[in-house]
Amino acid sequence: MSKQMSHLDNIPSTPGKFKMEKSPYVHNRLRWHSSLAKLTFWSFMFMGVILIFFFRSPSSNPLPQDPSRRSLRTFNWGGPAWEKRVRSSARIRSHNGICVLVTGAAGFVGTHVSAALKTRGDGVLGLDNFNDYYDPSLKRARQALLEQTGVYIVEGDINDSSLLRKLFEVVAFTHVMHLAAQAGVRYAMENPGSYVHSNIAGFVSLLEICKSANPQPVIVWASSSSVYGLNTKVPFSERDRTDQPASLYAATKKAGEEIAHTYNHIYGLSLTGLRFFTVYGPWGRPDMAYFFFTRDILKGKSISIFEAANHGTVARDFTYIDDIVKGCLGALDTAEKSTGSGGKKKGPAQLRVYNLGNTWPVPVSDLVSILERLLNVNAKRKIMKLPRNGDVEFTHANISLAQRELGYKPSTNLQSGLKKFVRWYLSYYSGGKKAAG
Ligand SMILES: O=C(O)[C@H]1O[C@H](OP(=O)(O)OP(=O)(O)OC[C@H]2O[C@@H](n3ccc(=O)[nH]c3=O)[C@H](O)[C@@H]2O)[C@H](O)[C@@H](O)[C@@H]1O
């Protein structure tokens, strides 16, 4: 059976009525029907105007690109052929393999993690809503890449409970790698609603299904280095305070950590949050600085390099994607099972949080110098004061906990990681055939 997710489902369909009233009835009935038709017509016109007003009015819709508008999109799923594809993608092909639902599988980290799991023989099913936060054609290209490795990505939203329930009916996932999220620090000021929709409502929707699944899966999910916010103690350790987020994005990730605590406490779900530190690499996100700096340097456009007060350095603990993938797999492999069943906790379950960084902060101006050398083009640098839109000045991970417990050991420095990124970038956007970002 084909199912669809759409807000439009709630609006009754009406065209049949109008057709019927055009049939040749006796005169009175016709008049009665025609006035009924008029009444119905004008009622619908009136409702239409109100709906248009509601969606357009700035006061009733304070979020100009409200993500709920995105979920007006219709996703098709269901049916025997679809279920067969889902099962085949999720089939474990190695001894001791795990069966993983990867949310955000067409995203940057999601694609790399899905491919790595599939390559080692785990069962992998992707889920992604292919939203247009950045160029969806890049997500489609990642999807095509995953298809070659045998990973199927179901198109749907993590807020669609009936889809999630169906997926757990078709496949007994042992693990969920939850990477679907609204990312980006600065965009949170433009579209705050999308952060609440994906990072809070979407996470809760997923946890609700996981808590009732039998067996309950293990969940590993993407938190963020941004939870350290205005924390000035460096390097950032998991024990440091995280109650001063500098952006709504950071606040939603911090909220995710608290929500994880609740579901672990009440339902016995095994939950591991990974605080990623500025992940970069091939197939990366065009909204991130290293990516659009590359694009703009090549185009001869000027780039803005932020600096802190008193010409202070802004730096990031840039972390290469392959290192992050190893950290994700380490977290999945070391996670203990959830303890609940039938939606009820049977005993204490594991609740963990780890930093996944590189432990080597690099000033943004140095990042630009590396790109200039790799691209053999001088950047048009514009030094700007760090805008007050959510960015923090400095990130630096203490990774000793992840090292000890996950065997996490980053091994790629920014120079060699960017070299791989630039090589990918130039071949992907070869000769300007595709427009970057
Ligand atoms: O570590 C993380 O958790 C976060 O890392 C990145 O956030 P961010 O570090 O701000 O990454 P970019 O947006 O690529 O910025 C990198 C650096 O370049 C700087 N920048 C950015 C944009 C710009 O025009 N100029 C500029 O100097 C930023 O201030 C920052 O220091 C991701 O975008 C987040 O999704 C992720 O959660």
Verbal overview:
- The structure is a single chain.
- By secondary structure, the chain is α/β, with parallel strands linked by helices.
- The chain has a domain at 181-277 and 320-356 and 396-411: Rossmann fold (3-Layer(aba) Sandwich), CATH 3.40.50.
- It contains 14 helices and 15 strands.
- The chain has helices at 15-20, 27-56, 67-70, 80-90, 108-119, 136-149, 161-170, 192-212, 248-267, 289-299, 321-334, 364-375, 400-406, 414-428; strands spanning 3-4, 76-77, 99-103, 123-128, 152-155, 175-178, 218-224, 271-276, 279-280, 302-307, 315-316, 319-320, 351-356, 362-363, 380-385.
- The strands form five sheets. Strands 5-4-3-6-7-8-13 form a seven-stranded parallel sheet, with helices on both faces. A two-stranded antiparallel ribbon has the order 1-2. The protein has a two-stranded parallel ribbon with strand order 9-12.
- Strand 7 (218-224), helix 9 (248-267) and strand 8 form a beta-alpha-beta unit.
- It is globular.
- Mean pLDDT is 87; it is low at 1-33 and 49-65.
- The structure holds uridine-5'-diphosphate-glucuronic acid.
- Uridine-5'-diphosphate-glucuronic acid is lined by residues 183-185, 224-226, 276-278, 288-289, 304-306, 314, 316, 364, 391.
- Its EC number is 5.1.3.6.
- Pfam families: Epimerase.
- This is UDP-glucuronate 4-epimerase.
